Structure formats: C-alpha cells, structure tokens
Amino acid sequence: MIQNLTELLQKYGEQVALQWAKHLHENVSDHYAARPFEELLTTTSQSSRANFDAIVYGDYSKVDAFIAKICDLRLEGGFALSEVQKAFEIYRQILVPILVKELKGDTLLEALQRLNDCLSRTIFAFSDYFLHMTNARLIEKQKKLDEDLQAAAGIQQSLLPQKLAKQPKFENLDIAWKFMPCETIGGDIFNVIRLDEDHLGFYMIDVSGHGVPPALVTFSISQTLQPHMGYTIRKRPGLSPNYEIVPPGEVLKALDSEYPWERFEKFLTIIYLILNIRNGHLIYSNAAHPPPILVHADGTTELLETGGTIIGLDGILPFEEEEKIISAGDKIILYTDGVFEFTNEKMALFGKERFHALVDSKNGLPIANILEEIVLEIQRFVGSAKLQDDVSILGIEFKERNATTQHSPQINLTIKD
C-alpha cells in the first residue's frame, strides 16, 4: 500500500501544489489574493513535500519546520488563524478526489486515514504555534507600550512645578501640589511660570479623557504657555522694558484660536492667574474650569469664576478678567473636577459640597498640609475603588514679607507627588 501511495503522491505532487496555490490566490481571502502567485506556489510545493513525508513515513520533522516558517510569514502579513487553517484544509479537498479515483478498498481507507492524521496534526500544531506566537507578540507589544507610557509619564511629571525649585526664590510665597493620574498618564497639567522678577503665572488645565490622546494635548499646551513662545510674554523691541506680560484674557483667547474643537475633538478647560508677588495683585481668567478657591486669612472663601466658556469654541464668548488683592495669610487652591467627581465602592459620590466643606475645615493649616489632608480624605473615601479621573491640586499661600528681604525674596516650594 505504501508503495502505491508513494507513487501516487509523487505522480500528482506538482499538480496538487499548483491547484492549491490557485485556490489560495482566488478563493480564500483578500490576504492570500494580495500575495504574489509565485510565492504561494513555492509555499504549497514545500507543504506538499512535507506532507509527503508525514503521510508516507510518519515523519513530521519537515511539517514542523514548515509550520514555524509559515507562521512567522502569516503573522507578519496580518493573517487571521482561520484563514491559514482554511488554507491547510484545501490540501485535503484537492487530494481526496485523486485518492478515490486511483485507490480502492482497504488501500483507499488507509490512505484517507493517513491523510486525515497528517492534516489533523498539522492544523492543530500550527494553531497552537500561531496562538503562542500571537500571545508572545502581544506581550512584547504591551511591554513596549508600558515602557512608552512610563516614559511619557516621566515627561509629564517633568512639566509639573518641581522645576520651579531651580528658579529664584521668594520668601513670601509657599507653593504645594498633588498630582494623581487615574492612568499612567493623564489629561491634567498645571505649572508655575516665572514671568519676570515680580510676576508669576499659574495655570491648571483639564483635557477631557484619559491616557495618551489628552496627555499629548496637555503637553502641547504646556509648551505653548512657556514664556519664550510669545503667548504669556510679548516682546517689545526697542522699548523699556522690552517685554509685556500678556493679560490672562488674551492668553485664553489665543489658546481658543490655537486649539479649536475640530482639531483635537477634546474638551479643554483652563484657569490662568498672574500674581504680583511683591504687592499681592492678582488677575485671572477662567475658561470653564472648576473655580479656584480663594481662602482669606479670616477663614472666609470666594470662588474665582470670572472668565468664559471652554477653549476651542472659536471665541463665541469673550474671556473676562477679574482682579483681586491677595493679603498675607490668604491661600488659593486650584484643582480639577477629579477632586470631587468620583465614587467609592458603594457608588456614593464624593461631591463638590464635601470637597468645599473639607477645604473650609482645614483652612487654618499651612497650604501643604491642606493639600495633604485633601488627598488623604480622597483616599479614605475611595477605599478599594479606582479613581475615575485625574486628581490635580495646586496650592498657593501668600505670607508676610520681611522688610529686610523685600529686594531678595524667596519662594518656599513644597513638592508633594
């Protein structure tokens, strides 16, 4: 029987490989149709020879080698497992009519059994190998993605106010912050920028969504707001001084034009404040951002709400400004809605009222301690649940100035991460 089967497979080997290649090219899938016919013929010829050794001699070494080779090729080509399984099955569809025509009785039955054994083992082995390789590649891609996200998170962290520690310091100002992204990287960004000897700019931004897309937008905006970019400091060549600090309303108007909704399809809110650190003069504008809390030294509070609508709506409303005088002992707390729009494991909402009550109860503490207490309360409330949004808080405390050091002020920066 083996001799008859050997002669039969040798006789029809090239014909089977040719029909197999044509069928792959014309009838299986777009992936196979896109491959050069000569390549498919080479593949079916190699597979036919490997199947010959397996059917006739029970030797699967060539089949296993072919599986490893074709698996890599099909993975690189974006083939689905089912496509390749179907491709293997075509060999049976072509060969069975030949066996029925040429063989009879027990000889035919044994030949069919050997063919079925060969294809069953081949398709099972290929499927197992394909899934293993697919999982391995997915794991490798996930590892690379995790590494990229960690690198992006590092970049995002570098944009936070910690770099203020490298700048000249002012004795009458304390700054503290907290940042807890709900994913590796988030859609919040905030910073403190030195505008000149007397003025600091403070901003906090919240871009809708989480993960990479909003993080890219926040990165772009943080670079746009750097003084050398011309959005927060305007040069005046030939004049004295040779620069002009751009008012908050104009800064938001420029961002509104630079970051239209249709460009990113992201909601963007921002609060931008300019503080004169010598006399406490504050001017700000709010683009639909949760209003910062101004906590006065006597314990009373007010919200910094003046401004306009979200960034990106093509100037449908002007960005109004408001001015305040900040006195010694006053504090300003900037935040995103992630500090109150979250639930615990019982689906109870923390809520805006609870957040404001918490700030009121802690207003006598130094600014760094207030932020610490806020975060601890958030963590206690959340418990085992997961934060649904990024939590960002930036606190500023205006302190008494020492008359002997007015001309060499210092900032006491408290970093909390």
Automatic annotation (TrEMBL):
**Taxonomic source organism:** Desulfococcus multivorans DSM 2059
Coiled-coil segments, which residues?
none
Listed GO MF terms: phosphatase activity
Keyword Cell membrane on entry = no
Record bears the keyword Repeat:
no
Official protein name in the record: Serine phosphatase
Q: Which domain of life is it from?
A: Bacteria
InterPro entries noted in UniProt: Bact_Sigma-Reg (IPR052016), PPM-type-like_dom_sf (IPR036457), PPM-type_phosphatase-like_dom (IPR001932)
Which segments constitute the PPM-type phosphatase domain? Answer: 170-398
Alphabetical keyword list: Hydrolase
